[in-house]
Specification:
The chain has 15 helices and 14 strands. It has about 375 residues and is α/β, with parallel strands linked by helices.
């Protein structure tokens, strides 16, 4: 009988709740406004001949490399950051080796690493979801071949100091250290170009968040040119479709649109955190594994905020849905029991969010509960 590899049969299944998503989508950290009008104009101009041709990825890589200030041989366009993670895992991991991740984090790190047959070492985040640098350093050994970090992290929004990531990369020269910067535009800090100092470092980016093109699946993997030459061998030359590649130059050209959206998002994030303070939901000063009746949130460097609502968690999600707003229950993530993650975005959507938030909190008597 045909049997899949044991590493595949034993994988955790990941089923993001993508069905029945009618309403204001504040549950998947997508751009709430959509892509640039220039991208839509480009889409309308595509014809049958353009779709009949095989995609030429290299032209897009020249445009992106120029925008990011890297050399073309330091960069590979990927089918979203998912493929970037997958390629790094397939290139550097095999059975008997180890991959280190810090939990909670993006689910695909564990899935792609485990699929290779490598052992995944999950290290719990520190107090208030801070990055546990010392614990990661302690876990590095001769079997370590991958260390994957989302920075800012999803679902917590926390940020690992770049100096700590450099220390880890230097401490594990035989391991690929992948820093996923999917939310870079909302944090403003990057470790990009550091692979010229530590060649085992890789950086991934996406056009799904700030650029509003999640449906086109465009990601970027960057790293040392010699390492990228090896990674490229594992990638199909046709991994990006012609539609995505046609839209990419227009998306990059409209930086005014992107910067306005990012500014609105950062402003909305601050407004949401201020609103949570008003309802006596405070910035956490306790371990995320602590008391379950505390209402708190974690200051974010991404386009979302994670908050702990205790017994109100499921009711909050349901009542927001009743008002046409989707938010994400992250209780299944490590250390996130009774936590909700809320995406922020365009100003009009943030205003609608805050209005609904006040109504639901009042209805749930969150003010009184938080004040006890």
């Amino acid at each position: 009988m045909l049997r899949a590899r044991e590493s595949i049969r034993s994988l955790k299944e990941y089923h993001p709740p993508l069905g029945d998503r009618e309403g204001l989508r504040l549950d998947f950290n997508e751009n709430t406004q959509g892509c640039s009008p220039r991208v839509l104009e480009r889409l309308r101009g595509l014809n049958g001949e353009a779709l009949a041709k095989y995609p030429v990825r290299e032209k897009g890589e020249v445009v992106v490399a120029t925008h990011l200030g890297v050399f073309t041989d330091e960069l590979l366009l990927t089918n979203g950051t998912d493929e970037a993670i997958h390629l790094v895992c397939e290139t550097y991991l095999q059975p008997g080796q180890e991959a280190i991740i810090v939990v909670p984090t993006f689910a695909m790190f564990e899935i792609y690493a485990a699929a290779t047959g490598a052992q995944v070492i999950s290290i719990p985040a520190g107090q208030d979801f801070t990055f546990p640098t010392a614990s990661v350093l302690d876990a590095i050994n001769e079997r370590t071949r991958l260390i994957a970090v989302a920075n800012p992290n999803n679902p917590t929004g926390t940020f690992a100091p770049l100096s700590d990531l450099m220390e880890i990369a230097r401490a594990a020269p035989n391991a690929a250290v992948l820093v996923d910067e999917a939310y870079f535009e909302f944090s403003g800090e990057t470790i990009a170009h550091a692979w010229r100092e530590v060649p085992n470092l890789f950086v991934s980016r996406t056009f799904s968040k700030a650029y509003g093109m999640a449906g086109l699946r465009i990601g970027v993997l960057m790293g040392d040119r010699d390492q990228m030459r090896i990674v490229r061998r594992a990638s199909s030359p046709y991994n990006l479709n012609s539609v995505a590649l046609a839209c990419l130059p227009d998306a990059l050209a409209d930086q005014e649109y992107v910067q306005k959206y990012v500014a609105d998002t950062i402003e909305g994030r601050a407004q949401l955190e201020h609103e949570l303070h008003k309802f006596r939901i405070t910035e956490s000063t306790e371990s995320h594994g602590g008391s379950t009746d505390k209402l708190r949130f974690w200051p974010s460097r991404a386009n979302f905020v994670l908050m702990h609502l205790g017994e109100n968690c499921k009711s909050f999600v349901a009542k927001m849905r009743e008002r046409g707003i989707l938010v994400r229950d992250r209780s299944a993530d490590y250390g996130c029991k009774d936590c909700v993650r809320i995406t922020v975005g365009a100003r009009e959507h943030n205003d609608r969010l805050l209005s609904a938030l006040r109504e639901v909190f009042t209805e749930l008597e969150v003010r009184e509960k938080a004040g006890r």
